[in-house]
Every structure is written in structure tokens, then in C-alpha cells.
Amino acid sequence: MTETSRPGAATADHGHVEVDSVVLSAELVEGGSVASHDVAEYALWLGDDALVIAQQLGWWISRAPELEEDVALGNIGLDLLGHARSLLHYAGAESGRSEDDLAYWRDEPQFRSAHLFEQPNGDFAHTIARQFIAAHYLFELYTRLQASGDATLAAIAAKSVKEVDYHRDHAVQWILRLALGTDESRRRMVTGLSDLWPYVDELFVDEPLIDRLEGVAVRPSSLRQAFDEAIVPVLAEAELDVPRGFISSGGGRGGRHSENLGFILAEMQVLARAHPGASW
Amino acid sequence: MTTPAEPYALPAEASVEVSAEEHQFNELIAADSRIEPRDWMPEAYRKTLVRQISQHANSEIIGMQPEANWITRAPSLKRKAILMAKVQDEAGHGLYLYSAAQTLGTSRDEMTDALIAGKARYSSIFNYPSPTWADMGAIGWLVDGAAICNQVPLCRASYGPYGRAMVRICKEESFHQRQGFEILLELMNGTPAQREMAQDAVNRWYWPALQMFGPPDNDSPNSAQSMAWNIKRFSNDELRQRFVGMCVPQAEVLGVTLPDPDLRYNEETKQYDMGEIDWTEFHEVLAGRGPANARRLQRRREAHEEGAWVREAAVAYARKQAVAATAVA
């Protein structure tokens, strides 16, 4: 959908987005298959993860440290919003709800996102730490989900994996720059990584839903080794230690969220909820 | 870079003689050809371009704010995606334009510093606030619509890098204008509250959009020289007239009323006669007394200052990498 700007490019080429390309692709809208209840729930996990982080990345546009990053974070957010829309559209078909019904008319306990995605933007180092973890997790997930027995999930994964691959690259470049740049940037990068690290484990927890979706869903625990193998060399190059300390008990997949999600949803939903039944 | 170290000035006694390079410049302009960065150019031409291109770039950057204001609250995911795409397009336009200005010997840092210090201009329109969602429609339809009228002729501007940047920018602006129109159309087909929101936004943005074309021709000091240099192709009043002519039929399709009681078609001139523009307000906003001037610059300054440590890190890292590469070689 959009090209992702490579960090450091003098004049970042930014994706040109036509109105038509932000409309869901036809195979999803017309005659698309309807997910079973369990598959819909799984699509909600992934869709909510993408939606919540896209919502937060949108805040950076016009506030980033340099124009190239306004463009890059905007593109990344736009990619993730695209994934969210496809996944929520699919998740809602089972219950006759639209992507917007799911995004704007559910409350916190109905959201299935993991806690990592709802952690605040913080400073740029926090956002990069969150991106670094999220992009590596999503890359491993979508790589495997392409082989899902569910054709719609496989198709969404095939499109998304190429995009999160660029997101990984963007985050890695910034982890290196910040960790090895100045004393100030290194201090901030260490803090950012250690503040976000407690939310890593939740991403790899197998819930009972996964047992019921053998061959359809990707087992989260099966991704951990590949995730570690991808990030450890980057942290080593950046001369960063894998943080130790707190580990959040999570609970997002069951609708138990941190204190942040309520604020994120309040802002996201405020206008839509002021005009019930309106179309935009 | 071919920037002369000293401001270009011919000694008075030599001013009647045209140097070979000036002759070539004049020939290129007369033939409606392009001036490129390595070509000789009069210092005044260079200054005019730097002023215009950097103001244009600054406008793109400050212009991100009124719309970024609604990204997190967009009322549907499709609208959110379109708005994110649009605002990041504007950052991209700022980048192209700063690059075009850099070919004239002014660095992006200088232009950024001047903007943040409040010394550089940007389009006054962005000093108006965007309190409702309908402002996303009105900005796209009216502000981007006016920008297109201004900018399409700039694709033929005599300075090559500027003209080429404008070609790409104009393609994207037409998408921006269309999405604004669609937002308003959806609102006008919606609930009474949505229709009211749309009309209110059009009421607030229409006159400032007309002011975007600049002062009337008889009060526009720089226009004549810019037209002689093939930078500007049409006068402010001509462009404003063209814009009004585009808006009227579109307003009819939308079902919104343009807030000018004197607006009517003149059978003789085949154009729309319009009411008096409040130039006092225009000059007030230009002088820094608009509704959101302080807020816009504050936000830009904060983003710049809060990002300083990130930019410093990138520079330090690049330097270390270069040193390491040299050591290996």
C-alpha cells in the first residue's frame, strides 16, 4: 500500500496514497468468507493490536524529531491501520458488525489487544522500543500466518508481512543510532527499552483459543525463539543488554487492560460516539 | 552550489552593459526555458525564489497541524487512513520544497531556524483553528482547492527544481481536494447536526481561502517582477476569480451556501462578481494577530526542540560509522 521511508534518506520518497487504495480490497468486502466465532476472536486479537498501535503512531505526525520521521512514522501507522481494517472487517463479518462498529463501539473489556501496543508513545526512544518489539513479533507472526488454513488470514498475512519487514528495518536503524549516538540518546534508549520490556512475554502466551485453532492460528509460544534470535544480535550490536526486571502479567487477550487503553479509546471514539448512527 | 559569496550588484557605470551570462539568462527567460541550479541568475531572482519556495515549504509544514489535530479522533477508520495519508503527504511536500530551495544555496537548517524564530512567513490560512471534523472537509475543499489554483501554473515556473517539485505536489493536492469535497458531501447527506457542522466550517474557511491568493493586483508589489521572470503566470485577482468560478458549481452539488451575499453571475463578464474581502483581517493575521499564530509556532518549536537529541544522535552515529569505515579502509 505505501512505501516506507528509509531512515536517513535525504529526501525520503513517501508513499502516494490514492483514495481508492484506502478502501478495503474487493475480496474482503464482497462475498468474502465469514469467520467462525473462534477465528473471528483470533482476528480481533491481531486487529486490535494493529489498531491500537496505529492510533498511537498517528499522534506523531507533525510532532516527530524531523520531517523524514513524520513521513516514516506516518507510513508505518498507515500500514498498521490497513492491517487493522482488514482484520476487523473479517472479525466483524461473523456478528454482522463493520470495522467501525468494532473500532468505535466497543469498550475496553471488549478489546483484545496485548498491553505492549497500548503503552504510551513516551519520548521517541520509547516509541522506537515499542516499534522494535512489535515489528519483530509481527514479522514472525505474519511470516507463519501466510500458511494458515484460513485463506483470508493467510492473504492478510501475506500482504502485511512485507510491510512489517520494513518496520523492523526502520526500528533497528533507530535502535542503533540512539544506543550508539550520544550519551543522552543512549540513556534514553536504555530507559525506553527497559520500560517496554515487561510487555514482551504476554505476546508469546498461548491461550485456550489457540488450542481450538490448530492449523489456523499461529501458536504464540512457537514464535519466541525466532523473535529472540532476531533481536539479540541487534541489541548486541547496539551494546544494549536484554532488560531484566518486571514482567507484566498481561491479560489483554481476555479484555483486562492497562490504564492507558481507556484514554486511547476515549480520544479515538469521542466524535463517532457523539453522533450515533451517523455515517462519515 | 553556485551561490555568489557577495550579493550580486553591478557597479552603476556598468549597469547598461549586460554581461554574457546575464544575456544568456534573459534569453532563457524569453524563450520560456528552464533555469537550472548551475546557471547564472540575478541575485534578486534567487532571493525571490528562496523567499517563495521556503514560504511554500513552511506552509506545508505548519499546514500539517490543523489536520493532524483530527487524526486521533477521525470518526471512521477509512477517514483516519485518508487523513494520515494526506498529512504525511504534506510533510513530503515540505521536504521536496526545502530541497528545491537548497539548490539555491539556503540550507534547510537556516529555513527551519527562521520559521521557528518567527522570522519566516507561511500561508496565513493555517493560523485559523480547526475545532470540528467538518474543518477537515472545508480545508481540503477550499484551502487545497485554492492551493491548486495557485500551484498548477507554478509547474511551469522558470526555475527547474521548483517547477518539477510542483508537478508532483499538484498531483497529490488534487487527491487532497477531492477527499475534502467527499467529507463535506457525506456530512451534507447526513444528520442535521452534520449538515450544520459542514455549513459552519464553510462559513469560517471561505473568506480566508479567498485571501490565500494574496492582495488585489493593485496592491501586490512583487507580482510584476515575478511575472516577468516567468515564476508567476497569472495575477492574484485572475487566480481568485478562477477559484470562485470553480467553487460555485461545487457548492451547489454539496448543498452548502457560500457566505457571500454579493456573489452573483455577471452575464456581461461571464464571471462571478464577489463581495468585498476584509483585507484588514488579512493584515491582522499576517501581522501575527490571528487566532492560532502563537499556537502554530509553539507546536513547531516544541517538536523541533524535543527532537534535538534525536537528530544529534543520528549525526553522532553517522560520524562514528564514517570513522569506523575509514579505519577499516
UniProtKB/TrEMBL annotation, chain A:
InterPro entries for this protein: Aromatic_CoA_ox/epox (IPR052703), Ferritin-like (IPR012347), Ferritin-like_SF (IPR009078), PaaA_PaaC (IPR007814), PaaC (IPR011882)
GO cellular component: cytosol
Domain of life: Bacteria
One GO BP: phenylacetate catabolic process
Pfam families, sorted: PaaA_PaaC
Residues making up the signal peptide according to the UniProt record: none
NCBIfam families per UniProt: PA_CoA_Oxy3
Designated name of the protein: Phenylacetate-CoA oxygenase subunit PaaI
Species this chain originates from: Cryobacterium tagatosivorans
Gene that encodes the chain: paaI
